[in-house]
Design a protein that fits this description.
- The protein has 243 residues and is an alpha/beta fold.
- An 8-stranded mixed beta sheet has the order 1-2-4-3-5-6-7-8, with helices on both faces.
- Strand 5, helix 4 and strand 6 form a beta-alpha-beta unit.
- Helix 2 packs parallel to helix 10.
Length: 243
């Protein structure tokens, strides 16, 4: 499997950010790490190996970025407002730096699908729902889509506008909703085993239904825990069955 490592000093995050690229051709899968992990996490936990047949045959080209969660909601030493600001800076890093990088390494017409597991699923979904004009779809595995789960009671405008379960019910922007409805690739998956929270995915699905946004809700069984074997099974399944 072809792999390249790129990186640059991000003017929006004020730090060096690496990105791993796997494959040559296909639609772009933009992967956001779980928790406080880095851009090679999905490789270390063998998710890239699980996808390798599809990467090697040119079905998908994967772009895996670093997280900044340890500088945001997972950092107990930071003031909550600073966490909120950092989260918004990460969004702009994706929109203003990573998306153009992907375009330059694919084409202007190549679809970009965000993807992640656990906290990465939250980011992947939020990035898509906020800018469906830039992002074409999402594969979210085992996520919780209410940022209040991570803010420890803190709330501000940036928290609201980065929490899909808060802003989506009130969303009435016709252009944004039309772009969401035009996506053929909103895939929400979860297991029902240990440490999974399938009701979080059900709640997101209900909001999307209320907004008339087509999507897949796929709830796997009690034998599927919140862990890597689940995601190694889910992601190749979605790529094979839905793309």
């Amino acid at each position: 499997m072809h792999r390249e490592i790129h990186g640059w000093h991000s003017p929006r995050l004020h730090k060096h950010m690496d990105i791993a690229v796997y494959g040559h051709y296909g639609f772009a899968l933009l992967m956001i790490p779980t928790a406080a992990a880095d851009y090679l996490e999905y490789e270390r936990f063998h998710l890239m190996s699980a996808m390798s047949p599809m990467i090697n045959e040119g079905k998908v080209k994967v772009f895996s970025v670093n997280s900044i969660n340890s500088e945001s909601w997972l950092n107990n030493q930071m003031h909550p407002r600073d966490k909120s600001i950092r989260h918004s800076q990460f969004n702009e890093y994706i929109y203003q730096e990573v998306v153009p990088f992907i375009r330059n390494n694919t084409s202007q017409e190549t679809p970009i699908i965000t993807c992640g597991a656990s906290l990465g699923a939250f980011h992947a979904a939020n990035l898509f729902f906020k800018r469906p004009d830039l992002i074409n779809g999402v594969i979210a595995m085992s996520g919780d889509y209410d940022l209040a789960s991570y803010t420890k009671g803190y709330h501000d405008q940036d928290v609201y506008f980065n929490s899909p379960m808060q802003y989506l019910p009130n969303l009435d922007d016709h252009n944004v909703l039309s772009a969401m409805r035009a996506s053929n690739h909103i895939h929400i998956l979860t297991g029902s085993g240990n440490y999974e929270a399938p009701d979080a995915s059900r709640r997101l699905s209900a909001v999307l239904d209320a907004k008339g946004v087509p999507h897949d809700l796929d709830i796997w069984g009690h034998d599927m825990p919140h862990d890597w074997p689940t995601w190694r099974a889910m992601l190749p399944y979605v790529l094979g069955a839905k793309f």
